[in-house]
Predict the 3D structure of the following.
Amino acid sequence: MPQNFTECDREQVLLMPPSLREWLPEDHFAWFVLAAVEEMELSAFYASYRLDGHGRAAHDPAMMVALLLYAYALGRRSSRTIERACVEDVAYRVIAANQVPDHCTIARFRQRREAALAGLFSDVLGLCVEAGLAKVGVIAVDGTKVHANASRDATRDYQQIAEEILAEADAVDRDEDERFGDARGDELPPALATHQGRRGWLRDARRRVDEKRAAEARPIARSRPERLRESKRRLEEELATECRANADYEAYRARGLMKDGRRFGRPPDPYQPPDTPAGKINVTDPDSQLVKATRGWIQGYNAQAAVNEQQIVIAAEVTVDSPDFGHLEPIVDAAERELEQIGVTEVPEVVLADAGYWHQAQMENIVSRGIKVLVPPDSRKRQGARPGWGGGAYAFMRRVLETDVGRELYRKRQAMVEPVFGQTKFNRRIDRFQRRGRAACRSEWRLITATHNLLKLHRREIALATA
C-alpha cells in the first residue's frame, strides 16, 4: 500500500473567490486593530486631501493608520519592512486589503501626518476608558532613555562646524571653477547665512530657549549643509541667550537688593561669557542630546510616561534633558490634559516617582491641587541621605515612606511603569527612534505608547472572551 499524503498541488487555481475573513481567526489582533480604527476620529488625516476627487487615487488614510498601528504594535517600524510584509504576511494583507503601499508612500504618510499620528494616542486612550482600563487613582511617572537617529560621533563644537561649512563652501567654489571657468554660473545662497544666583538665571534662560524650540517644532533638514547651518545658528543663539541672561543678572545684582527686599551678602563672583559658543551639538539630529542611560551615555532623548495601575500609559512626552529633575509637574499636567480631552473628570489621587524627580516647588504645586506625591529624596544607589537634605520636606517624605501605607503605595511604582518600558524596549525591540527632531520623536513615542495600550486592550478582550 503506498504512503498516504495530503495533495500539495501549487498549480491548482482557486475555484471560488477567496474571502479575507477566512484568512485569520476571529480573535486575531489584526481584526482588533481594524475595529479600533473604525472607532477613532480620523478627520485630521482626511483634511489635506482634495474634495473634488481629481488627481491620482490615494490609499485610504484609515487603512494606512491601521497598517501603522499594527506594524508598530509588533515592533516593525521600517517602511521597507512594512511594504514587504504587505506581500508576505497574511495579517498585513488583510489590513491592507491586498494592496501594497510602497515604502516611500508609508514614509511620507508618517512624515506628513506627524501631528495626526500623535493624536492617535488620545483616541486609543479613549477606547481604554470605555473598557474600564483608564482608572487614575494612582499613577506612576518615569522616563527611559531612547537612542536618537544619530551617532554620538556626529557631535561637533562651534569651531568644527564653522570649519566644515567653510570647507564645503570652498569645495563648491572649486567645483564651479572646474565647470564654468571664468564664466558665471547660477548663484548659490550664501553658506553662512532670580534669587537662584547666576547659575540659576542662566539655567532658566536655557530652559526658555528649549521651550521656544519645542513650540516651534522645526523639522530636521535632510541636507547636511542645511543641518550644519542650523547647528551653527543654534550654538550662536545659545551664546546670545547666555549673554542676555548674564547681563540681566548683573543688573539685578547692581540694585543691591533681593526680590524680597533683603540686601545681598557679598558681590557676585566675576564672570565673562565666552566670545564664541562653547557648547556642542549633534549635526545629524540637532534636537537630540547626550543623555545618561543604564549602560552609559547615548545620543538620544528622555521619553517620559505616566502609567496607571493597569499599566495603561495615560501621558507620553519627550524631553531633551538627561535627568528627570524638573519634569514631574509637566508630565502630571500632560496626564490631566489627556484625561480632560477624552472626557474623563477623574483626576489622579497619588503620583509616584523615583528620586530623580525630586523638585520641591513642583511637588508643592501638585499637592496644592489635592494630589498626593510620593517621591523619595534619596536614591537607592546612595548610602544614607544626601548632604544638606535633612529636615523640612525631606524628613517629612522619609517618614511618610516609612509608614505601612506609604511603603505599600510606593512599592507599586516599579511594577506599574517598569514593565511598560521593558515590554517596549526589549520584547518589541523599540529602543531607537527612527525619525529626527524632537517633534517627530514625540509623535513616534506617542504612537509607540498608543500601540502598547492597544495590545493591553486586546489581551483584556481575549481574557474576557475565554473566561
